[in-house]
Amino acid sequence: MEGGSEEGDVTARYDIGMKMRRQVLGDAHVDRAEAAKTAFDEPFQEMITEAAWGTVWASDGIAPRERSMLTLALLAATGNFEEIPMHVRATARTGASKRDVLEAFQHVAIYAGVPRANHALKLAKATYAEMEAGDE
């Protein structure tokens, strides 16, 4: 590879990813995730930090607000509900409003199904209530 080693590129992508992950999810969340990491899942955690956070989220192709909306819609549409609260909390840092989240889930209802959107909205409502109560 001209201009640097592949290992150096991966290390740089990991560092960028960790910075982005902290920017979007917050230090407390990332610190808890890092503390829970074991030798078993460390390669997986490195991969998602490099790929999801160091490549996709770090891209300047779309703004963090829109990336949050896309992420929430995709999680809901595919039935991956476990990460919806985490990404709803992230909207406080990405600039996606409650209205933006509602609009994203309305798209899910039309294009992927009302039950998935309904469940995602239920999770978002509960998460916003926790955030407003200071129980983040």
Automatic annotation (TrEMBL):
Family annotation (InterPro entries): 4CMD/NDH-1_regulator (IPR052512), AhpD-like (IPR029032), CMD-like (IPR003779), Decarb_PcaC (IPR012788)
Single Gene Ontology MF annotation: peroxiredoxin activity
One Pfam family from the record: CMD
Residue ranges of domain Carboxymuconolactone decarboxylase-like in the record: 43-126
Superkingdom of origin: Bacteria
NCBIfam families: decarb_PcaC
Record-given protein name: 4-carboxymuconolactone decarboxylase
Species annotation: Roseivivax sediminis
